[in-house]
Amino acid sequence: MKPGAGARVAVVDDEENLLETLGFALGREGYRVDAYRDGLAAWEVFEAELPDLAILDILMPRMDGLELCRRLRARSEALPILFLTSKVEEFDRVLGLELGADDYLVKPFSVRELLARVKVLFRRASLGRAPDGAAEELLRVGSLALDLARYQARWEGAPVSLTVTEFRLLRALVRHPGHVKTRAQLVAEGYPDDHYLAERTIDSHVKRLRRKLVEAAPAFDAIETVYGLGYRYRPPSA
């Protein structure tokens, strides 16, 4: 069975031809597709029930993709979100990742590539849903504990809500405290099924990861930037 087969995929874009093309292609792969022409129309439905995966254009009338992503993330950290954007919107792509999008595609793109990205996102999302009774495999460094089976993070016992990508990046850093992880290494850790992403994408994810950890512990500063190389995790006691 294809990853996510039978799942509800929401496509939000104001280009009618694109909605029709993606609706047909995703439907052939076994997904149930809901199409929306603007962000507000989509949000009115999402308030009552979230889709299993959301594909969002950035520039849309009434409510843009960035605001819609912000609202979706406020409701769910686990929902896979894929942005569609144009080449001239580099700033918006970065901001979208900082708001919590898992991935993005630059227009024009091939439908085949989009389908591959959707499958990867569903495969990654399934990792965070460990079956009941799964044995805990904990990685502890100071006040931070990572449940490797359930993809859950805790700081001094309190949960920290992370996306699958954020959890993977934190896991990669925490496993070797004090060691520098290059951006290329973190791309491989965060996106093991997809190495097409620019290395600078990692900066956006790390920025959001830091912000979440600071919300849990205001004095948190353990993720250090090593300029010209990448990042390392240095707990306060190190």
Keywords, separated by commas or semicolons:
39% helix; Rossmann fold; alpha/beta; 5-stranded parallel sheet; single chain; 12 strands; 8 helices; globular; 4-stranded antiparallel sheet; Arc Repressor Mutant, subunit A; 238 residues
Could you describe the 3D structure shown?
The chain has helices at residues 16-28, 39-46, 65-75, 90-99, 111-127, 164-174, 183-190, 201-216, and strands spanning 8-12, 32-36, 53-57, 81-86, 103-107, 138-141, 144-147, 152-155, 158-160, 181-182, 223-226, 230-233. With 238 residues, it is an alpha/beta fold. It has two domains: 8-127, Response regulator (Rossmann fold, 3-Layer(aba) Sandwich); 138-233, Orthogonal Bundle (Arc Repressor Mutant, subunit A), CATH 1.10.10. Strands 2-1-3-4-5 form a five-stranded parallel sheet, sandwiched between helices. Strands 6-7-8-9 form a four-stranded antiparallel sheet, covered by helices on one side. A three-stranded antiparallel sheet has the order 10-12-11. Helix 3 (65-75) packs parallel to helix 4. It starts with 7 loop residues before the first strand and ends in a 5-residue tail after the last strand.
